[in-house]
Write a structure and sequence with these properties.
The protein has helices spanning about 1-10, 20-30, 50-70, 75-85, 90-95, 110-125, 140, 145-155, and strands spanning about 15-20, 35-40, 100-105, 130. It is an alpha/beta fold. Helix 3 (about 50-70) packs antiparallel against helix 4. The chain is globular and about 45 Å long.
Length: about 160
């Protein structure tokens, strides 16, 4: 993300991330808060604070990586281990320190991400939560008009 911003000559940007991309946007903000002008987090979660929950996630990541390896998709296996795996709770613990405008969007039918979205909205100062009725994990695809209506005033 840093290389993309640098390549575009952008000092700061509003980051919009869906699912894992939202978590990565939060991680980028933690590492480079001066480069983030705002966050739009779509059907994502903040990671895991507890070691046992994080370990369960990482077991799933390792299973996925092994499945990629079995198919000969070594690049995807490396990406799974390098990007999906969570090593600590720094991202979730950083939520109260976020000081940029934050819009959290989640589909009401995306049960795995509803509680995480509410949690982020409660922890990030001034964050706005929008639950889209009838939407699942990808409201930007299934309910694009609603998402665009939410983004327009947020982006100004």
């Amino acid at each position: 993300m840093l290389a993309l911003l640098d390549g575009a000559g952008a000092e700061r940007a509003v980051l919009m991330g869906h699912s894992l991309g939202g978590y990565l946007s939060l991680a980028f903000h933690l590492a480079h808060p001066e480069r983030v002008a705002g966050l739009v987090l779509v059907d994502t979660g903040p990671g895991y604070r507890k070691d046992d929950a994080r370990a369960g996630w990482n077991r799933m990541v390792e299973e996925r990586a092994r499945a990629f390896e079995a198919k000969g998709a070594l690049g995807l296996a490396h990406a799974a281990r390098g990007i999906l795996a969570q090593r600590d709770g720094r991202v979730i613990e950083s939520l109260p320190s976020i000081r940029v405008p934050t819009l959290i969007i989640v589909g009401e039918d995306d049960k795995p991400f509803l509680s995480g979205s509410r949690y982020m909205a409660e922890r990030i100062p001034g964050a706005r939560l929008e639950v889209i009725a009838g939407a699942g994990h990808s409201p930007q695809e299934t309910h694009a008009e609603i998402v665009l209506r939410l983004l327009s005033p947020f982006l100004g």
